[in-house]
Amino acid sequence: MQLSLDKLFKLHGLSLSRQPKDDVTLPKLVEAILSKQSGWREWCKKLYIEGRAKEEIIQIQNSDNTEIYFNFGNWKSPGELNNLSFDTVGIPEEILVVLHEGKMISPEGKLSIKHLKELGIFPKPSKKEKTSEEICKWLEGIWLEDYVLQQLKNIQSDCLLDEVGMSFKFPEKSGITFFEFDVACLRGYQLFAISCTTDDTSHLCKSKLFEAYRRAKQMGGDEARVALVCYSDKADKIKQSFMSYIDDPKVEVFGSKDINNLSEHLKNWIQGVDK
């Protein structure tokens, strides 16, 4: 009997709250974003600022004016997110072409969360009221997970992968809090778990790697392998820092210079763990 990801997780006392996703969302848009990711990530700052709740942390007064600084917290309410609508100024042309081809720009010429929701082109969350939030999350960074999923599909036969998927959600249970994991694949009895972030700051990427390592071992046991895909240009340093705490040379970090040829890097990593 062939082992599945779901059965593997159950062997380690975990169960999924919903089926993971095994198809790539909007692959043409993902490719366009990847080709102009710097400009897209810059434009998405609008989404981050407008879509998240703000909490005032300090006011600084001088003779001319008062400057107020905020922390940005969780996503706003479904109703507030549903009303978000953005000018397309600043979106790279290559991405804008794909958005227009897919009729993702509203009749008013805006990138509207309500319009995208009405199109029904994004995966539906388990809670209907979370749809607008999931769309915002995808635009901001989940697209990278879909890209990684596509790269795994590209090498699935070469690497003898039995199953690939993304968006693994585990409900809270005794002794284990709720958590999600980005992308994973299974080869025989061995789990390869890949955490993804569009962040490029070393401390956040390193924190993400440590969390991914802990979760991967929960999901697949001692033989599980973990990698981080990020936009840091210091991937080697992130890995070295990690290994100064946990000596596991099979852990890998793929940074900004690896993204465009990611399928080949993933293939070398997966095939190389046996050596």
Please estimate the helix content: 40-55%
Give the termini separation: 27 Å
Task: Tally the helices.
Answer: 10
User: Into how many domains do the coordinates divide?
Assistant: 2
Rg calculated over all Cα atoms: 20 Å
Description:
The structure is a single chain. This protein is of the alpha/beta class. It folds into two domains: 5-24 and 142-272, Trna Endonuclease, Chain: A, domain 1 (3-Layer(aba) Sandwich), CATH 3.40.1350; 27-121, no CATH class. Helix content is 42%, strand content 21%. It has ten helices and nine strands. Strand 8, helix 9 (235-243) and strand 9 (252-254) form a beta-alpha-beta unit. The model has no long low-confidence stretch (mean pLDDT 90).
How would you sum up this structure in a few lines?
With 275 residues, this protein is α/β, with parallel strands linked by helices. The protein has 10 helices and 9 strands.
List the helices and strands and how they pair.
Elements: H1 5-11, H2 27-35, H3 37-51, E1 52-61, E2 66-75, H4 78-82, E3 85-87, H5 93-101, E4 110-112, H6 113-119, H7 131-154, E5 163-170, E6 179-187, E7 190-196, H8 202-220, E8 225-229, H9 235-243, E9 252-254, H10 262-272
Parallel strand pairs: 7-8, 8-9
Antiparallel strand pairs: 1-2, 3-4, 5-6, 6-7
